[in-house]
Design brief:
By secondary structure, the protein is α+β, with helices and mostly antiparallel strands. It has six helices and twelve strands.
Length: about 180
């Protein structure tokens, strides 16, 4: 029903279109196929589209601009790349898949900045050499292409991605401070 209504609307070639969660309730394959086809049509016909979505990965994949709202207020807007790479606060960082929010105490001890911070899992590596960041492996979750490893350093939880399952109880982590965002 939803697809028929969308097809009828597109046939009229509107100048602007509002889509409210148009791909929810679809399986992953169907959602990806339909979304790709619809946005190809919308771009081809230059139809301005406002699409409301709670699926941030979906929004990153097709949006030209993203507006993040919380409690009815705009808290950040920009290109998908800008929103993802430079979140203004920890809410936006976690909304777009950043699972590593570092406490101000942790940041002070390890980075000499007494501010809350975030770093994405893809910016942390398990090191083969000794580093100041020795972590205890708490849990591993298979994700298809690799493993999400939950570690702790003191009380700080840190998620790391690894292509291989970790057999050790503790690991050393390596990261580039340039990839940390302080709030």
């Amino acid at each position: 029903l939803q697809r028929i209504a969308l097809a009828q609307t597109l046939a009229e070639e509107p100048s602007i279109l509002l889509l409210d969660e148009p791909f929810s309730h679809l399986d992953t394959f169907t959602k990806n196929t339909i979304r790709e086809d619809i946005f190809k049509i919308l771009r081809k016909h230059k139809i301005t589209t406002v699409c409301i979505s709670h699926d941030t990965q979906e929004a990153l994949s097709y949006a030209d601009r993203i507006i993040v709202m919380k409690e009815g207020k705009i808290i950040q807007q920009g290109t998908p790349e800008n929103i993802y790479q430079y979140p203004k606060n920890s809410y936006i960082a976690t909304l777009f898949g950043n699972e590593n929010i570092l406490s101000a105490e942790f940041s002070k001890k390890y980075f000499n900045k007494a501010k809350k911070a975030c770093i994405r899992t893809e910016h942390i590596q398990i090191s083969s050499k000794k580093t100041p960041l020795q972590a205890v492996v708490q849990h591993q979750k298979y994700m298809g292409r690799g493993y999400e490893i939950l570690c702790t350093i003191e009380k700080q939880k840190i998620r790391v991605y690894s292509l291989q399952k970790i057999e050790k109880k503790s690991v050393f982590l390596e990261l580039n401070e340039e990839n940390i965002h302080f709030f």
